[in-house]
Amino acid sequence: MNKTDIVGNTIAFVKDKLENAEGGHDWFHIERVYKNAMLIAQNEVCDVTVVKVGALLHDIADSKFNDGDESVGPKVARTFLESENVDVAIIDHVVKIIENISYKGGNFEKAFTSIELNIVQDADRLDALGAIGIARTFNYGGFKNRTLYDPKIAPNTKMTKEEYKNSEAPTLNHFYEKLLLLQDKMNTQSGKQIAKERHRYMEGFLSQFYAEWEGEK
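^ that's the sequence the OP posted. Answer follows.
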């Protein structure tokens, strides 16, 4: 199978699979991550096919929507790619990307590393930053029926992986528990540059939020 077939068939598969997904983890999220990955990949020496397919399949079965089971996504991706007769080396690499891309509270070491993983991970993290990141955060908070903000509940930036997965904290806490920490966790130079601007935008949003919350403007 040629590379165009792999990418085209994967796009069709993902669109179908995520047709009814939550708004922050739907096909449009995948498409944005794909575009981010292509932008970053221009400045890196990498296997572009692995980056493309990895970006497209990175959230094919997010554990948040599968009772916390992190094995579902890799299994779904492997089964699909095997059915498309994709090279074993590509399949194994893409599965490793899916297994290691997640934030998981930020307090863990990746069991695998590659420039392709670095690119896709940066691309995914960029979609959690800036205007889109803000929109996705509150969309998911609404999906989970969480409080917008509670001054009495302080953010916890030292959560374990399990605490992070099971957190029911107000939506605004997520900015401090993940989003504002991403700028310093980017892997590539391109990712770092884009993250810096989006980080600054979020800081401005938070300043405005608190001012409005206190009735100052």
